[in-house]
Design goal:
By secondary structure, the chain is an all-alpha fold. It is about 90% helix and about 0% strand. It has one domain. The longest helix has about 30 residues. The radius of gyration is 15 Å and the shape is globular.
Length: about 70
């Protein structure tokens, strides 16, 4: 994993820990605002962060469902 990808993931995880799933929505809104105000590179970076947060959230949800289902077996 490239250093930039690792830093992006660490920041995404930190934001998720602090704000929960709302962080993903806020990142998407911020990316749209950056794009709308003429900052396409910032928008792209924010979108990468949003995608990393969403992937981490989905991984965590998958882990929780596996734990949940394996306990009842």
């Amino acid at each position: 994993m490239a250093l930039r990808d690792k830093l992006t993931e660490q920041l995404a995880l930190s934001m998720l820990a602090r704000d929960g799933i709302a962080a993903i929505w806020q990142l998407h809104l911020s990316a749209a605002d950056a794009h709308r105000t003429g900052h396409p590179k910032a928008a792209q970076s924010i979108l990468e962060l949003a995608e990393a947060a969403e992937e981490a959230w989905l991984r965590a949800e998958g882990s929780r469902s596996l734990i949940c289902c394996s306990k009842s077996s």
